[in-house]
Fold this protein.
Amino acid sequence: MKFCGYPRADGTVGARNYVAIMPTTGCVNAVCYHIEKLIRGTKALPHHQGCLHPSQDTEQVTRTLINLGKNPNVAAVLLVGLGCEMVLAEQVLEGIRESGKPVELVVVHQIGGMLDTINNGAKIAAEMVLEASAIQREEVGLDKLCFGTKCGSSDTTSGLSSNLVVGEVCRIMTENGGKFIQGEVCDIMGGEYALKKLCVAEEHGERIVDFVRDLYLRGIAVGADVRGSQMTVGNVAGGLTTLVEKALGANAKGADVPIQTSVRYAEIPEGPGRHIMDIPGHGFENLVGLAAGGAIIHLFTTGRGAPNGNPLLPTIKVCGNAKTNVTMREHIDVDVSSIIEETETVSEAGQRLYEYAIDVANGKMTRAEILNFDGTMEILIKGPVI
Amino acid sequence: MKLAKIVHEEDNVATALEDIYAGEQVKSRLKDNELILMCNHDVPFGHKIAIAEIRSGDKIVKYGHAIGSATQDIEKGDWVHVHNVRDDYKVLDKEGKPLPGQDG
């Protein structure tokens, strides 16, 4: 298997080659959508943050935008600002510029309205696409691959098949020097001490437990015990007995691969191997955190059939439920119901999924991409909306 | 013969891969060994069946980890779920004490 991707100035390699149209505040999403429609090869990255946050969240949104811009699937970035938001557009601009890729900024208040900003921005974006389209894929090592993962619309088959298969991919791809990022702190809850044992360094194990404590205490602050909301009536009806059982099934997406580091939301983990990020289970914020962390492909396990992708991350849907693989066929990329039927081993299916993911990294489209079911995203904030 | 899946060699439960009814034989594979046992209860798809005797207070082990404790003696072939398992999990502080708000 060979990975042929788009080389970037900072040494990373992309699976896609987008010109990102990135708002620094949700107030200018409309401008970004218009530019995306006008100029082929661009991707709008709409979100609803950027203003009226506590300072910690302003810092988190800023970090997320910078690191999304640095994502290897991005060739160049056009930033769109309003001009009065808390996130400082110039700071985002300088942050992305560190990666060596082209980045420019248009500001609606400075230009004077949406229409002229679209005009100016679209002209810049068109030049960026012209340059980006000349970048050729090059063969590089499999160590340049970085995968993210999560599970969504899960059912009993997830913990018994698709999650185990992704765990096998984690094992194979990290042995080949690749990077693998997972999180979903709500699903780690109950399995945090099992993950802690897998940490190479004690400090990171304790930090993963802290991620769980932080989530629990944020729930308590609004009067909710999130342990209870994590175990749903549907989970129990499906056969899950305890929160620990559910967590172990979710954590299986990393098998027993050693954990190198823990990182904050949207931070870029350093070095190869398996890493844990402080990200929620909710898909929109989750995939953005992983994309900002440098993932170029996402392995999304599902039982009932979660259709969403992410604008920057080709998202491979992996499903072990034979019925869903029929009823939701147009949304499922890889069928692993063979594990439930015991006609294929986890290691065989893991190798098959790994090879499929490399095909996608090389340009094969995911079903979420083909269906344009990848336009919704969000940035995590932890404090109150002011 | 119905199928149930053992995820890890230390597990004392297997998960039903199809609906299993009381009195039916169940086959589970663990590496190269096949385990065949009689199911004592109706166990729906996705639910667990004991593959060993489990005494009251013993840990229920799946994925090689304790997922809870038995609240009563469980025989080999019994259905294992919320009626005979207690969830021991609490979010703990750095000293190992439960954080507030977890009375249940």
In short: Chain A touches chain B through 35 residues (CB under 8 Å). The radius of gyration of chain A is 20 Å. The first helix of chain A runs from residue 29 to 38.
